[in-house]
Predict the 3D structure of the following.
Amino acid sequence: MSGRYCMRCGGRLARDSRTSMCAPCRQVSGIGTDHAPDLGLDFWHTDQMRDAFATRSMGAVVRAYRYHPAHGHKPLPQETVSRWLGTVTQSQVSRIESGQNRVDTMDKLVHYAKALKMPADLLWFSLPDDTDSIPLPRSEEVLVLPDGPLVPAASINTGSAIADSLLKTLDFYASTDNLAGPHSLVQVVPQQLRFIEDLLRDARGKDRAQLLRVGARYAEFAGWIYQDTGSLTSAMQASGEALDFAQEAEDEALASYILMRRSNIATDAGRFDLALKLANSALSESGRLSPRLRALALRQQAHAYAQKGDAVRCAEALAAAFKLAERSTDSVVDLGHYCTPEYLEMEAAQCWVELGRPQEAIDSLRQGLAGWQAEFRRDLGLCLARLSLAHAVESQAEYAVQVARNSAAIARETRSHRIISQLARVPAALRAVGAEDESVQVDRLVKSLRS
C-alpha cells in the first residue's frame, strides 16, 4: 500500500496531512514557528558543521545548517531561516550563502549566532555576556525617567527621521552622478545601503516601512552605479535587493520602477527576452502608476521590441510613452519625473538606430538636444554618442567624428561605461559605409578612453 512519509523520521503521515513532516518532527525542527529550535550539541558537533565554522564565513555556516541531515531528506527552506533570523528576506539569505553579501559586522554575527542558537565553542568570535548588558526598550515602549514623565515612543524613535535625511543625501548623490559620473559613488552608496540594513534590524512599524522604501531607493541607485561602470552582474544583484525591499514595503509604484530598471540592465546585457518580460511586469499594475512611470516602462518595451526587430510594436510603445510624458507634471516626488519628452527623444533614437532608421534617430536626437538641461551632463554624453552612431549609419562620416569627439570629452570626465560602449559601435558603422579614415579616428578616441 502506497503512502506518504515524514521527510525527517520516515514515519507514515496521516492521509489528510498537508505537510511533509509529522507533528513531532515539525515541533523539533521548528518549522512553522518564529524561533529556531534548540537542536542540541550532536547537531552542531559534526564534521560538516565544524568545517563550515572553520571557514569563518557565516554564509557557509547557514548553508551547512540548512543542509544538515537532521532536517530530513530536503534542506531546510531559506524562508524558514529568514523568519527565524527576523532581519533578512529569503533572497538576502540566498545572497549571504552564496557569498554575495557578507555578514561581517560584530552585531550581525552575534545576532545570527543567537538566533540560530549556535554553541559558543565553535564560533570564531566571542558572544557578549548578557548579564552585563542593560536591555534597551523596544520602539513600541515608552522611555521611563526617574521621578519624571513618561516619554512617548514617537519621541525616542529616529527611524523615520534618518530615512528622510538619507533621501536628501540620495538626491545629492544623484546630482553628483548626473554631473560627474558614477565612480566617485561606487564605494559610498553600497556602504550607505549596509547602514540602512543595520537600521532595519531593529526597526518596527512605520519606521520600518519608511526605511524599507529608502533601502529600495539606495539599492536601486547602487544598481544604476554598477550599470554605468559596466558591472552588470552586480547591477542586477543590487536591483534584486531593491525589489525585495519594495515588495516587503508593499510599495507597488516603487516595485514597478525597479522592475523597469532591471529591464534596462537586462537590455544592456543583451538579454532582450528577459528585458521585455520585466518591462511587461513593470506595467502589470499600470492603473496605480503615475503617467511617467508608465512611460518609462513603455520605453523599455520599445527598446526590447527594437532589439527583436519588431518595428510596429516598438513605434506603438514609443507613441504611448510620449503621450504620457507630455501630459504629466514634473514633480520630483514622482520617481519617473525625469521622463520628459526630451528624454524620450534620446531613448527613441536608440530604437531607430537598432531598427536601421538613422535619419529618424537624428531627428529625434536634435529635438531632444534643443531642450537639454545642463545638470544632466553624463546623459548628454550618451545622447551625443547615439547621435554619432546615427550619423555614421547614415553615411555622414564627418558629422559622426565631430559629434564623437564632443561625446568622448564627457566620457573622459564621467568615465561612463554606457557612453564608451555606445561610441565603440561607431568605428564599425563607419567602416560599413566605406569611411575608413574616420573609422580610425573614432577608434583611437575609444581606445584612449579605455586606457
Observations:
- The chain is about 65% helix and 0% strand.
- The first strand starts at residue 143 and ends at 144.
